[in-house]
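[recover] target loaded
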């Protein structure tokens, strides 16, 4: 599908991730709708976005947003374009909104189970993921497989590190390897001084009780990586729609598998 036929509606302003996603989509050559969705406590009716200018905003929960979404979806279909919502709000109820408006979506979600169940009832195309950085998601998948294949391997090891924004998948992997709860320790860590909204920073060291064996790794990712991943997910769903494949909920692991091919 030609990039200019992809019509993206951004949801979640004034979150800086929403701005990053909007700018990235514009740079990819996607069409970005001249309106977006904002959080209920945001009191402005418009926002200035780099490379796009001023976007009209409608608040989540406002009937005007639903009307505007339906109108945009109908117009896109009349013009043979692919309408899709890019949502960074982490609001579970938005799944029902997009289902009612019959619009595909990509959505950040820290608790995806409820959203997937709600979405499957309407059978919309969607990518739902806790993280949209495809490199981080692929790494987490590798760690998850490691934990499943070698449960309790690091039993008796201590973990030292900063787990800011550590994904649930990564935490569960560590639970399996350590044979004990890990995520609570990560939650106690404070953000580094360089932290900005949308940043993911993780630094861990596994040390055995004797101190003779240590495994460590560190990774950081900024909001730009998140935005690029969400743009990849949008392009991925547009391809599924173009191939007329059955509607379903995908994960970023699915997108990461296909990302190299999408660049060809």
């Amino acid at each position: 599908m030609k990039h200019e036929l992809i019509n993206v509606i951004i949801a979640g302003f004034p979150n800086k991730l929403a701005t990053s996603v909007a700018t990235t989509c514009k740079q990819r050559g996607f069409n970005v709708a001249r309106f977006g969705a904002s959080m209920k406590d945001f009191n402005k009716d418009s926002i200035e976005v780099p490379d796009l200018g001023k976007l009209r905003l409608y608040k989540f929960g406002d009937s005007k947003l639903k009307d505007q979404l339906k109108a945009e979806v109908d117009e896109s279909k009349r013009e043979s374009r692919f309408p899709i919502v890019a949502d960074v709000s982490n609001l579970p109820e938005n799944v029902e909104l997009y289902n009612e408006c019959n619009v595909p979506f990509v959505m950040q979600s820290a608790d995806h189970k409820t959203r997937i169940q709600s979405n499957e009832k309407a059978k919309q195309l969607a990518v739902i993921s806790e993280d949209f950085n495809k490199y981080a998601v692929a790494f987490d998948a590798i760690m998850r497989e490691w934990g499943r294949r070698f449960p309790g391997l690091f039993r008796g090891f201590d973990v030292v590190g900063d787990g800011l924004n550590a994904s649930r998948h990564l935490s569960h992997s560590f639970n399996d390897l350590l044979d004990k709860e890990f995520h609570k320790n990560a939650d106690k860590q404070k953000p580094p001084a360089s932290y900005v909204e949308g940043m993911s920073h993780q630094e861990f060291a596994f040390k055995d009780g004797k101190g003779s064996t240590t495994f460590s790794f560190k990774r950081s990712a900024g909001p730009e990586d998140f935005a690029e991943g969400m743009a990849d997910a949008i392009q991925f769903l547009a391809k599924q729609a173009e191939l007329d494949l059955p509607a379903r909920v995908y994960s970023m692991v699915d997108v990461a598998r296909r990302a190299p091919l999408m660049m060809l």
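[recover] notes: The chain is about 40% helix and 25% strand.
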